[in-house]
Amino acid sequence: MGVNVYCGKKIKMKKKWILLIIIIICLFFIFFIVNNETIKKGINKENLNPHSNEEKYMPSLKLLYEGKMNGIEFGIGTKYDKIITQWGKPEEYNDSFMGGILLKYGDTYFLVSDNQVTGIYYTGNNKIYGVQIGMELEQVEEILGSPNDLYTSQYSELYINEPLILKYKADKYIVNFEINTENKKVNSIAIFQDLEK
Fold it and tell me: What stretches pass through the bilayer (predicted)?
């Protein structure tokens, strides 16, 4: 009988620990959802423009319409060899990044696939389309208007911390402003070809 009482107490103790762990997990998810909604609060989702065919020309995104960024002479579609010829050997070279090649030159990263640039990722101090790294989410919207999309990125090689992404479209190109979910500031600016076009 003493063994049964001991086993019963052990089972009750395990149930308490399991219940405690479940409560902690639930609280974590509630905190994450509330925190994420607080960040999104500054953006009026009713003003999002998900229909790229209905977008109006935005002069501040002039270079994006060409697949380029301010201060970077190469754009989407530039041949890999041209970058190497003009800028020399990259500081960092990774031939297995997001299914392609990553070339790093200072604060500029070129994503290359099939011998051409498919994306540009920037973390420097220059203004890109009037936006600078470190600006707050609300400042981006003041400069560029409401984004075409606003979402939390899934984990990837490019976005490892699951940040908030403000996405703007300009014809067949898109720009993503990576927003840090803790301080609500721009961490990076990346452009890609819009695969939906």
Answer: 17-34
Per the structure, the count of domains in the chain is 2
In the structure encoding, which two tokens stand for residue 66, read together? 């060409």
CA distance 76 to 174: 11
Please indicate, yes or no, whether residues 6 and 79 belong to a single structural domain of this protein: no
Same domain, 71 and 24: no
Please check whether residue 175 is in contact with residue 62, taking contact to mean a CB–CB distance below 8 angstroms: no
What are the start-end ranges of the H helices in 41-101?
A: 80-87
Give the pTM: 0.71
pLDDT in tens, 48-66: 544 444 567 888 999 999 9
Burial of 185 (C-beta count, 10 Å sphere; 0-12/13-18/19+): middle
For residues 80 and 13, state if they share a domain. Answer: no
